[in-house]
Amino acid sequence: MCTAECNSSQTTNSSSHQLQLVSSVPLRKDLSLAMTQIFVWPFVYINFLMLFTFYSKQSFRTETRYILFAHTLLTDVIFLILTDLVVILSYSSVLMPMAFCIPLCMLMETVSSCTPLTITAMCVERYVAICMPLRHSAISTTSRTLTAILIIWIISSIKPFVDVFILVATVSKEYFLEPTFCHYEIMTPEQWHRLMRGILYIISFSIILFIEFFCYLMIVLAARAASVDKKSAGKGLRTISLHMLQLILCTIEIICPYIEAVVIQIDIELYLSVRSFNFFTFNVIARAVSPLVYGLRDEKFYAALSYYVRCRQNHISSENREPDP
Q1: pLDDT for 13 beyond 60
Q2: How far apart are CA 109 and CA 188, in angstroms?
Q3: Distances from the Cα of 61 to the Cαs of 127, 153, 222, 274, 277, in angstroms?
Q4: What is the pLDDT of residues 173-197, one digit of tens each?
Q5: Rounded distance, CA 89 to CA 96, Å?
Q6: Quick one: which of 272, 280, 253, 261 has its CA closest to 84?
Q7: Contact 209, 244 (CB under 8 A)
Q8: Distance (Å, rounded) from C-alpha 247 to C-alpha 212?
């Protein structure tokens, strides 16, 4: 394990404070780590169960909204598992080589960016289904949905690759030889780089929010038309409203590092409390909204999920109730 001088100035301060706190308050470290596991793994289990339900039904694998929903579940599972790995390494005071941390941070950033883009695609799909029902089957095909998912991954991977190129161009070779804690700030050691990244996030959030608001407005207008199913339009409005809530939570997660950078200058104990609150609220809970939106509110998916959760007890009990010939 190297000394605090191994890292850049900002990373050094954060790492040394964390190491000092971990060694001086082990009870708090163990409690925070246990709370992380309690919050993360139930959602990971639920997402895996919903993914199993999705792959077990042929009808789900051919509908656009369920394919996009499964993609959201998959990216959320990857993100939660990787985040939990980083938390364990941090609380264990394990410094990792840059060659390991950079690809890990790039993957976490990519799957994190996939979530708001997929949410936007789901809102557009609901807009097409409600406002253009006659063209919905022609537009929302399986091949086009998979193409959209590929585009989402490409767009999501642009920012981390650009950050790597900037990092390579602005730091010395010795920087990549230093062990460090795995967090995305190691990819943006320069202040101007972090500022540019924040501005790009604000722009992308504004575009996504505009698209979702447009879909919401169009569905509201369509709900007033006599030719549109009122019940379907009402469900679509509630779904997009929850999507917008999830988008806001995911976006607040983006500005959390900037808030934490200010708080750490004030008090280290307050910093760790704020960091824990941000993690549980905007990393874990924000990714629990997707199961709430589709897994529990969708009657068709909920019926299939309940069937597998109960281990087919209903099917077995119905067979047992059949009279003997």
Answers
A1: no
A2: 13
A3: 20, 19, 28, 40, 36
A4: 888 888 888 888 888 888 888 888 8
A5: 9
A6: 280
A7: yes
A8: 10
